[in-house]
Design brief:
By secondary structure, the protein is of the alpha+beta class. Helix content is 25%, strand content 33%. It has eight helices and 18 strands.
Length: 341
């Protein structure tokens, strides 16, 4: 995101939504800045998709206000909001060509056919599908259909593009490829993206900022680095990557080191003694779980920098010391980012 783009484009003030007796959102406050890739992250039922649908206009809030470019749009229908939505199922018309699919919304707004098709051609070129303009959706791969859905959503040049888990149906390799393409596309167009996902790695790798949802509330808003390195709660720490929590202290597994029990640790390091309970080789890394002498466990994730020759460095039953630099320990709940919107 361009550091100069700081003006708010979407704001939620005290937004609440319930379905029957179930609270989906509880007085949520949120600000999304113009031109950023903003992700709503959380487990199923946490409120992230409800938030997206409220911004889109598919749902009405029970309380609170929703602003788009400073205008209160809470009472406006979807077609009167300068937003477009991309869904996981793409929702393409199978009997229309890609050109006709992308131009459909423009034609519905009475734009002349030639002008609508020229805009659609530019949108398809942006997603590298201009040469496929006369094909039907059934002739495309899943990743290509996703690109068409993006082109159709962007052809109107919406102020905000809403994406509801759009990559969820893709296989892992294609999903990673589309993550890179989406981020590049957002940067090139400058359109504000609001992206819903439950995938932590996806959120960390793509987002300018992330809002972590839990039971209808926002636990924390911040950049990927802020959330991962300085989580405001145990929930955020555990949801974003693997974590070890000792009391109110967070220790990320990749920041810990294993040494034989007899070895000393450098000055400035903390340590705990224990015994290896589990050791699993993952190729690039080895994950070791250590049962501590004073109770509890620590998970250690170490890169296999030197090729493993036949056996792991530590195996089940080995007496070891877990060490970490003091700066690696983070106090949970002491983050300056909690509640920052």
């Amino acid at each position: 995101m361009d550091g100069t783009m700081q003006a708010p484009i979407v704001q939620l003030e005290g937004v609440a939504k319930s379905y029957g007796g179930t609270v989906a959102l509880a007085r949520v406050e949120l600000t999304v800045r113009a031109g950023e890739f903003f992700t709503l992250l959380g487990p199923s039922g946490s409120g992230k998709t409800t938030t997206l649908r409220l911004i889109a206009g598919f749902e009405r809030p029970d309380a609170g206000r929703i602003f788009l470019d400073g205008q209160d749009v809470a009472a406006l229908p979807p077609f009167e909001r300068a937003v477009n939505t991309v869904f996981q199922d793409y929702a393409l018309f199978p009997h229309l060509t890609l050109m006709e699919n992308v131009a459909y919304g423009l034609r519905a707004k009475k734009m002349p056919r030639v002008k609508a098709h020229e805009a659609a051609r530019r949108a398809l070129a942006a997603v590298q599908l201009e040469d496929f303009a006369v094909r039907k959706p059934t002739q495309l791969s899943g990743g290509q259909r996703q690109r068409v859905a993006l082109a159709r959503a962007m052809v109107n040049r919406p102020r905000v593009l809403l994406l509801d888990e759009p990559l969820g149906a893709l296989d892992l390799k294609l999903r990673h490829q589309m993550q890179q393409e989406l981020k590049h596309l957002q940067f090139e167009t400058g359109i504000t993206f609001i992206y819903v996902t439950h995938d932590q790695d996806e959120a960390l790798s793509m987002s300018d900022r992330i809002a972590v949802f839990n039971h209808g509330k926002i636990e924390q808003v911040g950049t990927p680095i802020e959330l991962y390195e300085r989580p405001a709660s145990a929930f955020v720490a555990n949801f974003l990557g693997s974590s070890n929590i000792l009391g109110d202290t967070l220790l990320r597994p990749e920041k810990l080191h294993l040494v034989p029990r007899a070895h000393a640790v450098p000055e400035g390091f903390e340590k705990r003694h224990g015994m290896v309970r589990e050791a699993i080789y993952f190729g690039a890394v080895t994950r070791t779980v250590v049962a501590l002498e004073d109770g509890g466990t620590l998970q250690v994730m170490e890169a296999n920098i030197v090729p493993v020759q036949g056996a792991l460095r530590f195996v089940v039953g080995d007496a070891v010391t877990v060490a970490w630099p003091r700066a690696a320990a983070v106090t949970i709940g002491n983050s300056d980012n909690k509640g920052e919107q």
